[in-house]
Fold Peptidase M23B.
Amino acid sequence: MLFLLPLKAFFKASIAVVNNLPRKHFFALILLFVFLLVISLVPMQPKTKKTIYRSLELPEGVVVKDEHAAAEPLAAIKDEYAKVFPDFSGNKEVEFEVNDGDSLSNIFEKESLSAGALQLLLDADKEHLRLANLIPGQRIKLLIGPDNNLLSLKVFLDLANTLTFTLKEDQYDALLETKAGKWRESLYQGRIIGSFYKTAKASGLTAAQIQQVSATLQDKINFNRLYAGDTFRVLVSKQYIDGQYSSESDVLAILIKNRNKTYTAFLHEDGRYYDKNRQGLSKAYRRFPVNGKFRISSNFNRKRLHPITKRVSPHNGTDFAVSTGTKVYSIGDGVVLRAGYHPAAGNYIVMQHSRKYTTRYLHLSKILVRKGQRVERGAVIARSGNTGRSTGAHLHYEFQINNRPVDAMKVSLPLSTAVSKKEERAFDKRRDLYLQEMGINNI
Ligand SMILES: [Zn+2]
């Protein structure tokens, strides 16, 4: 408490002084106090920035002369990440158009690519069977690594489809990419003058579409007996990719009127045609491509492990253990989409039964049909064999829906000849829509 005493005395004295000050001085003192208070509250001015320039001289050995000076650290990265970033390694891209007589093997020779890679590539193509018969006009893009190893191959099959093979570990992965495009409908109609074929052609239908029309109604109409004055309407759906007609089309609906009768056909969801009363116009599919007694030696298995490599190597078909020369039947009406020889598949046939359904027959000894040929269900299209990469005489048979292999022994096939009960409503709706689009109110 003692040290407070002088402070107390000081305050007392100060108050006494202030009290004794003349009034003017007192006010001056208050003013001074306020002034000091204001000054203390004004924010401080920021200091002016000062820029310091320095120059640094590099020792002569490290001077960066041009962009390549950075290559040394990148080269180190390159080795470590070569697999992840193959582009570091100075890959070369080669692009060209397939010419008449070009084959994959002469392309490989020209680019000095190994025969081993060609073999692996053809193995990977077994699912698509497109590499053995390249078509003039198709574009191909190769990506070749610094050791002249093929990293990827891309084939632009047509406007809609691109097939890419990519090297992964030591085999190629195949990927088929399909552009959906836009489907637009066109109506073709006419009054017959001369033959049906001539009039239909004149209306704008293509030969393939006319063939589809006559094949669909061949059991109902004798097309040679359509006479002048008979009429037809055909509704076609055409695919456009980036505004360009891809030449893919579907005949959606047909209506032919002769003097006394009207014939109709409507394409249903299952890829087959039915008349207005839901009765089937295409024959039912067969389950098996061979007749008589047979043994199945290998079933469809997407996850089959390769016995030697232990890798997943899908078996996309069903193998029938039949001796060479056994008759092979088309399981349904259709058109031969492709037929030829493939080093892995041997002699093969791909049949198109509808936009959705295709079937394939591999390792044949003899092909009895040609590309573009229309074939009826049950027609003998080939003789079985042991060609291509095959370990014994057998028929490998595949069923694909929208380019995807399915188990041919289990797939629910359109086997009956009429629209199934549960699909009746959907069929009727589609039929009525097509009729409306053809400008038909009642039939
Ligand atoms: Zn097989």
In short: Confidence is low (pLDDT under 50) at residues 61-65, 67-72. The CA atoms of residues 236 and 251 lie 5 Å apart.
